[in-house]
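We give the chain.
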Amino acid sequence: MDYTIWSHILLELALSVSGEQELDKLVKKATSAFSRKLDCTHGSVLQYKSNRLEVIYAVPRVILKNPVYHEVIGEFERKLLQDEDKNVIVIEKDLNYYGFPLRNFGLLLLGRNVPIEEVFLKELLPITNMLAQNCFANLDAAMKRQTIEAELKKERHLLRVIIDTIPDLIFYKDQNGVYKVVNEAVGKFLSLLPEEINGRTDWDIHNEAEASKYRELDHRIMESGSVQRYEEWIKRHDGSLVPFETIKVPVYDAESRCVGTVAVSRDISERMEADKKIQTEKKWLEVLFKNSTDAIVRIDHNYCVEEINYSFYKLFGYKLEEIRGKDLDYVLDMGKENTANRYYTKALLSGKKIVVEGTHYTKEGLPVEVIIRGLPIIIDGELLGAYVIYNDITEHKRYEEQLKYLSSYDQLTGLYNRRFLEEEIKRLDTPRQLPVSIIMGDLNGLKLANDVFGHQEGDRLLIKAAEIIRESCRREDLIARWGGDEFVILLPQTDIKTAEEINRRIKEKCDSQKDGPVQVSIALGYAAKSRAEENIWQVLKEAEDWMYRNKLLHAKSYRNAVISSLKATLFEKSMETKEHAERLKEMCRKIGESMGLNPQQMDELELLAILHDIGKVVIQESILMKPGPLTEEEWVQMRKHPEIGYRIAQAAPELAPIAEYILSHHERWDGKGYPQGIKGEEIPLLSRILAVADAFDAMTNDRTYRKAMSREEAIAEIKRNAGTQFDPEVVSAFIESCCKSDKNFHEGQY
């Protein structure tokens, strides 16, 4: 309904009062126009008349034919038609409507309370300073508008609830920088109510610098029409700064004019903390990657090299620029097809973790035993590549092989060990292997060699003995080092005669060996099992018993041979000669007789005169034959020979009685000698006698480092040292027996 025409009609009616005729014409004209409008309307019409609100109907035939009427008014208006007294509903309340003396009217219609001002304020033009006698409104239009406005109000409320529920800061500013809309998050952040922020600018909230910055950014966005995304620190109400990520966009009206900006700012404190943590972890991983002692390589999904660490370079010898982009298997397998490694590669690139042992090769082609750990890199479900970690276990593998070797072999000689041979004896103790012979041997003089010359010489003897036995046996024979100095040879399918032949070959080879200070000598015994009912361990015991019998039988001759060998070595490598030994023996005999020694003491004194320096066999020849004075270090070595000689004598029963004398023959009467520093009569008498004779002979014979003294000078020197270096009583006996009454002395033999 066109209320603009009707308003003009009402205005003419109110202002044109020139006469009744004119008024009647106007009324008729208006009524006619209103009727036409009413007939054409698609809704019901309300009339406000003399403080009464009525429902006005058009011509009944029109009403009945008007479908819109039935939809809007429905049963309620039909009831009004049946009862004319109820066709007017009036609720009188004050309402001031644009200057009209109206009271608050409410219309109860269709079960809803519709404020009358919502009807008239939207449908009528205001008529100021006049009493409106007849005002009309289109009820249908008013009801539709009211419904729409209710929906809009509901939507506005929902939108408000939504933006207030969002924890991000949301605000809208007009083109002048005035806040028009802010959500509760903004108020909470600034410790202000939203209504306290709306209507204010940044200069009312922030400091000058910050406000200028925000305003400049708003201008830039409105002018460019661009969307800005940036991170910023916003000051909280308590002065603390909080990091935000802000998205700010321009806002346009229906005519595409920019009317302001709207921004959403999200607190990224947690994200920044998480990023910081990620960066820290990333740095840790980078440090771990670079500095790990394990070789690490990163590969892509095609198994091509992307990055390596320094340990990878050290292990395999490749620099990154040499292998970047190359197939890792191809690089580390020297271009060879390795089906096992390729299988594990496929497993890794299918997303599986792998832990395997394998062999790869360095740039120089050297094999490297490694534990390979593969860790696929999967991000958001996508396989990007993998880390491959190599732990070098080459030495560990060698150690394992060594342990495996040592579980069956003797490390020193390379022969089988006792544990292995015992298992073989059990395995081969079958009728099929008969006859089975066993040879047992014991290395003579091992303790002497260890005590006198050190374990290095003892090891040499063991290695040499193992070599002799191995050369004397057949390839199929099983040879083991049974104990410290014992050997066992297991001879399957071998009779006693063949065992005896092998025994003979071992002896002959031992006799032919002449190298080293100690001759290789092995005491041997053998036995055979020829019948199944015989006990193999008893056969071993028989061979052992025979070996010990032979050892005892030939022990003395062996020791004599060793002593003779040591004497020969001593005379060969030092200034000690047979002539020197004979002179000492003669002088010692005379001194001993002068002092009344018994026959046993005399025998021991003569043996001591010959072997007192036996310990020098282990002293370096360069020291023994040095033409000049010895250094302090060389003297330290030289002073060890009494102790070494003592150990040699202890190892041989024939020399044991003179062991203490050998140990003490460089002690002094005043206690300033070596090695024990004993003095006076604590020193054995035979050692005191030898000391005088040895000193006199040394002074009266040439040495590489000096010329000989005269006999008179030597005697004077001995007399001068009586009571300090020498026993005075022994010196007197020496002078009496060797100097005054000895014709040889006067003839210059001493």
